[in-house]
Design brief:
Elements: E1 2-6, H1 12-25, H2 32-44, E2 49-55, E3 58-70, E4 75-85, H3 94-108, E5 113-116, H4 123-131
Parallel strand pairs: 4-5
Antiparallel strand pairs: 1-2, 2-3, 3-4
Helix pairs in contact: 1-2
Amino acid sequence: MRRVRIAEINDVDLLVPLFDKYRQFYGRSSDEGLARTFLSERLERRESVIFLAEQGGVAVGFIQLYPSFTSVGAARVWILNDLYVDAAQRRNGAASMLLKAAAAFSRETGAVKLVLSTAVTNLPAQTLYERHGWKRDDEFVEYALTMV
């Protein structure tokens, strides 16, 4: 039976291998120590909300949300920063369950929207998001200023 729940600090060991694979997917070197520290800090400081997908007690995926706000809308916004499902568990509904949990949580916390960005080459993710009602932003252009 698959289930999705909000992760707590004692779930870090379940999250670390998935988070490490997620980072590797985006071209970073494996570093489980870094993953453990980063996730522990986010959860301990309550700087993010992480949903964990489990299948038979095994962690198969996660989604991480960061809080933000819209000044113009004077309301809460959640940033869907990370979504990852273990390669062996893909196409089994875990990503859909995680997206639905994130949307429900966003509504429950009074957010006016849930936003994300993904690599332009990540067509499978784009297809998944669009299947769940997400709309590509054609109004704004995203920029970044790298500090390191």
